[in-house]
Amino acid sequence: MNVAVTLDEIRPDTLPSASEAGPAPKRIVVAYGFWIFLLSDIVMFSALFAAYAVLVRATAGGPTGAQLFNQGSVAIQTACLLASSYTCGLMSLAVNERRRDATYLFAVVTFALGAMFLALELREFAGMIAIGATPQRSAFLSAFFTLVGCHGLHVTAGLVWLTVMMTQVAVKGFRPNVQRRLLCFALFWHALDIVWVWLFTVVYLMGVHP
Amino acid sequence: MTDTHYDRAPGYSSRTVEAGEATASHAGIYTLGLALAVILTATSFWVANTSLLWAPGVSLGLAVLAIAQMGIHLIFFLHITTGPDNTNNVLALAFGVLIVLLVVAGSLWIMGNLHDNLMPSAELMDLHMPH
Q1: Residue in A4, A187, A206 nearest the CB of B62
Q2: Which member of B30, B85, B103 has the closest CB to residue A28?
Q3: What is the average pLDDT across B18-39?
Q4: Which residues neighbour A89 within 8 Å (Cβ) at sequence distance 6 or greater?
Q5: What pLDDT, on the 0 to 100 scale, is given for residue B16?
Q6: What does the DSSP assignment read for B61-129?
Q7: CA A96, A117, B26: angle at the middle one, nearest 5?
Q8: ipTM of this model?
Q9: B5–A27 CB contact, under 8 Å
Q10: Do B48 and A194 touch (CB under 8 A)?
């Protein structure tokens, strides 16, 4: 008895509204709560973006973004994060189908791409610090390291979270609460990609452009 | 028995998907999102590096491309829809966008004003510089 199939043929305006359909399923409520967290996280990033945009010209005679940034590396980082977002989506599908092997496979690929992103970012930071472009050098560099570093810390947290979730899948299996956590992780990972879209646009592309 | 069926975003499935074509189409939706995101990203990098475009418009163009890509991510990856079970998420998103705009635009506006009105002029700065 699957009413969903017949309801598909009913015009959308005859569907019950969310309030008439009774309490929302728990996964909807959990996703909503996590969505609120993600938005608050994005609001925090917006403050860092604002600080960066205000301080971008305050180089105090030090190196500017155009001198420091390497677009090739940024392009590879972008590709890594975008591809890992894609494999994370495929992992969500595998989780929905409770396919353990596919879940592990896509989780490993997601982790590897995220780790590669982090490695490239750390290499960029190390290269900048080696030539004296440290956060102490100018207000511009303080804002840059805060903004980009904060995103990097989020990616690091995401990698740790992914490892924890794979352990939970291995030990507990696809229990409903584990599936909800995996759903939250996917939301987190995709949201990080949205932040990165603004990062490479505002910091690296607009910064290099005169 | 009251198994209601809401509007669903591309790739979104609230219950276990039956294997087979449904899976393929869902993966296809993610692939479509990825393809669109790659196109927009590549365009962004091209716009930032080309000399064919009117230079003052490049920043605006980059912002538009970023907004478009954010939309692609929201729809294809984060599954934001207009469906009834998503109303709250859309409202929260709208509020979040409002706050983000206020913080960023407000900061730039106020700090720009302060910079113009309170920064000592270059000559004045030179007086204090220990040369």
Answers
A1: A206
A2: B85
A3: 76
A4: A186, A190, B11, B30, B33, B77
A5: 40
A6: HHHHHHHHHHHHIIIIIS---SSGGGHHHHHHHHHHHHHHHHHHHHHHHHHHHHHHHHSPPHHHHHHHS
A7: 25
A8: 0.82
A9: no
A10: no
- Residue A25: which pLDDT band, with cuts at 50, 70 and 90? confident
Say which amino acid occupies B123: E
- Read off the amino acid at residue A159: L
pLDDT higher than threshold 70 for residue A14: no
The span from the CA of A61 to the CA of A14, in Å, is 65
The token pair that represents A103 in the structure block: 């879940």
Does the pLDDT of residue B120 top 50, yes or no? yes
* Gap from A126 CA to chain B (nearest CA, Å): 24
- Tally of residues, chain A: 210
Q: How far does the CA of residue A197 sit from the closest CA of chain B (Å)?
A: 6
For the segment A123-139, the average pLDDT, to the nearest whole number, is 93
Dihedral over alpha carbons A104, A183, A90, A40 (to 10 degrees): -120
Average pLDDT of chain A?
89
Task: Write down the pTM of the prediction.
Answer: 0.83
Structure tokens at A106: 């896509």
Alpha-carbon distance A53 to B109, whole Å?
11
Whether residue B84 and residue A190 make contact (CB cut-off 8 A), yes or no, is no
Report pLDDT for A15: 58
